[in-house]
Amino acid sequence: xxxxxxxxxxxxxxxxxxxxxxxxxxxxxxxxxxxxxxxxxxxxxxxxxxxxxxxxxxxxxxxxxxxxxxxxxxxxxxxxxxxxxxxxxxxxxxxxxxxxxxxxxxxxxxxxxxxxxxxxxxxxxxxxxxxxxxxxxxxxxxxxxxxxxxxxxxxxxxxxxxxxxxxxxxxx
Length: 172
Description:
By secondary structure, the chain is mainly beta. The protein has one domain (2-171). It has 2 helices and 13 strands, in the order αβββββββαββββββ. It has helices at 2-9, 97-108; strands spanning 16-22, 26-37, 43-53, 56-60, 65-68, 74-75, 78-82, 114-121, 127-131, 135-140, 148-153, 162-165, 168-171. The strands form 2 sheets. An 11-stranded antiparallel sheet has the order 5-4-10-9-8-1-2-3-11-12-13, with helices on both faces. A two-stranded antiparallel ribbon has the order 6-7.
């Protein structure tokens, strides 16, 4: 699985990580910004590539965690007030510490974008994307359930998705 993941994700090397959000799962957008059709005759901006995570993740530097998946369950501005359940649809998601921290990160890096420099995976589906400026995006499955951990794909395309599950890699 390690080699398959690294081989498939190497297309990210040299591309910018420019956005993230939550639509029941956390998503990250890489590469060129593209406008694609959305529901109700609207358009939405997506990346050239998308990484959708259904497992734990974090963005960190060598000495600190800037934001992580569990931040979804803390309120912006008051990180010690946890919420049992948060509606990940608007506006509740935007009121989470996770959204606050990601917004700040991408705003602070507008003039020095986060560029993928290296991809390292392991044999259980974890992946580490080394980013410019000493940042790391780390994805780590954290359960033993028979489930999908994450997927990588080209948004609004009929190309197959690269899916990492507890049972291995699926392309389809």
